[in-house]
Design a protein that fits this description.
six-stranded antiparallel beta sheet; six-stranded mixed beta sheet; Immunoglobulin-like; mainly beta
Length: about 200
């Protein structure tokens, strides 16, 4: 999996540099380059970094938790623009195009598959109220390879990135704590991961 992510990063760097050299690989990877956004009406392209880059740019230090089954890193929960990432039919009800989005980098360090679901993530605001994931759905085709908008089953020794938009927070509230419950297949109990920002 790491080899594929490195290949994608190399392709992103080449496209950002304007290079047209090809990466040779026997494996094909289908993904959309988010480093440019094309306007069909004018035929122009504008710079538009990947959503993972947007989140990393506006985040502080990452926070990692490792258990026997999972190593989960919360890259950050910054306010980022997502109107270009939601399904078209959700744009009308989006309202403010900027939302707090949690980016998790998750690795299955156990021996059985784990299920990571955004429905199992809750957010505690600086006002001490509990908030949940947004009802706005991100379009997976807009996120790039290895990045999921809601849920993914992660095989042993594999990784995935999951982006979870937070419901619209009041203007003076930020996310202070993120709590996620991980379900491990075959185990009756779940693991709680608590990140204090």
């Amino acid at each position: 999996m790491g080899r594929f992510l490195n290949q994608l990063d190399a392709v992103d760097r080449q496209r950002a540099d304007g290079s047209t050299a090809e990466i040779k690989s026997s494996d094909s990877v289908g993904w959309r380059d988010l480093s440019t956004k094309s306007n069909r009406a004018t035929g122009t392209e504008t710079a538009n970094r990947r959503i993972t880059d947007r989140i990393q740019q506006h985040s502080d230090e990452s926070l990692s938790i490792e258990t026997g089954a999972v190593r989960a890193t919360l890259v950050g929960v910054p306010q980022v623009r997502i109107d270009d990432l939601v399904y078209t039919h959700h744009r009308d009800r989006l309202g403010n195009p900027t939302r707090a989005c949690a980016l998790f980098d998750v690795e299955n360090t156990g021996r059985i598959p784990i299920n990571w679901s955004s429905r199992q993530t809750k957010f505690i605001g600086t006002d001490r109220y509990t908030y949940r994931q947004s009802h706005i759905s991100l379009d997976p085709a807009q996120l790039g390879a290895g990045c999921y908008p809601s849920q993914v089953e992660i095989e042993p020794g594999c990784r995935a990135r999951v982006i979870t938009p937070v419901e619209q927070l009041p203007p003076t509230v930020d996310v202070a704590k993120v709590i996620h419950r991980v379900d491990v297949r075959g185990r009756p109990d779940s693991q709680r991961l608590i990140y204090t920002l």
